[in-house]
Amino acid sequence: MDPREFRNALGYFSTGVTVITGKVDDKLIGLTANAFSSLSLDPPLILVCIDKKASSMAAFNKQSPFAVNILQEGQEDECWRFAKRAEDKYEGASYTFSKDGVPILNDNLATLECTVEEVLEGGDHYIVTGRVQSASRNEQLKPLLFFGGKTGHLAE
Asked: Which of 30, 43, 78, 135 is least enclosed, having the fewest CB within 10 Å?
């Protein structure tokens, strides 16, 4: 299987966009992820797939808190800011802190506050499962979508 063709084909599955946020010691981490899914309603579990080479993997230890920021159409800057390698991805970002000290982006479509349940091997990625501790959403907003390597919006 040609890896580039495989990647291109997967790019034609439209998804929402998330930014996964957390911290390692006092350092804030964040990464854009579209490999995200609900996993279980009882108990409430989600999963996100993270590249094994990602420096932010150090934040995902058993029971470590993290947040899934589900982006809305006005958050394209956040999508691309957290997709790049940078020393301080939070520079210019608008966020607050959860009670656990995890950064939460402002104005999300939805936010899930989680703790790490398990980290599993998955080829060149880790599959991080998270137990959802709290969830919130804004029904007035519309999702940011990802398709074919580009962000987009729902048509009216």
From this structure: 43
Cα gap 36→118, rounded to integer Å: 15
CA proximity to 50, closest of 119, 143, 151: 119
Contacts of 42 (CB under 8 A, 6+ apart): none
pTM (predicted TM-score): 0.93
Taking a C-beta distance cutoff of 8 angstroms, is the pair 44, 132 a contact? yes
Query: Residue 127: exposed, middle, or buried by beta-carbon count in 10 A (0-12, 13-18, 19+)?
Result: middle
Per-residue model confidence as pLDDT tens digits over 103-141:
999 999 999 999 999 999 999 999 999 999 999 999 999
List the alpha helices (DSSP H) in 17-68: none
CATH assignment of 3-150, among 3.30.365.10, 3.30.420.40, 3.50.30.30, 2.30.110.10: 2.30.110.10
